[in-house]
Amino acid sequence: MLGELVWDELGSAPLSDGRRMVLRRRGRELEILAGGLMLMSTEAHGSEEELALEGCKGLRDDAVVLVGGLGLGYTLRATLDALSPEATVVQAELLPAIVEWNRGVLGPLADHPLKDPRVELAMGDIAETVRASPGRFDAILLDVDNGPRAFTEEGNGGLYGMAGLKVLKAALRPKGVLGVWSAWPDRKFLHRLKHLGFDAYAHSAPARGKGGGREHLILMGRLLA
Hints:
By secondary structure, the protein is an alpha/beta fold. It has one domain (about 45-225): Vaccinia Virus protein VP39 (Rossmann fold), CATH 3.40.50.150. The chain is built from 6 helices and 11 strands. Helix 1 packs parallel to helix 2. The longest helix is centred in the N-terminal third of the chain and has 10 residues, at about 45-55. The chain is globular, with a radius of gyration of 17 Å. The termini are far apart. The mean pLDDT is about 90.
């Protein structure tokens, strides 16, 4: 159609299975795709922000929070806004290109969260960051894929099985919080959390926040001790 906006590719990066992650823009909208499937968009980030709000409820002033997955920067920004000036946020990210994009064209979207002095950037596999940090975190917030049924990076799936959850639990302080963004319900995942001593529940979050949209889920676990 005459005058219809087309997508412009702004950058790409390889995934471990040979597929590519692509950053593209159409007018004011930006998207990140994984293997041709839309992973995140500037048009729908309310549920990512809700992950931060729900996960940071009631945390102490000097809390240490791990955010897994930088994406478009919205989860990190919402986490910073929910915490006090004394808090620390460890941002884990596997792909250098995502960090580069957030320091460039994506930076203004969430008011340049990587520039906040409370942020520690941890590059590499988030599982390694977690294993190296026993008992450090008051909350771990995972937005590394489309939920426990991972499709972006096959290795992400290991975070959500029983063995991976035991590693995540070991990185939490007593009464720590684990939050996972998910595009779909996952009762088996919540059951695993309960088995490991979490108070587990699913928190519904519209994709566009107050603007509505498709319902996403925040899968939450709060340690009972």
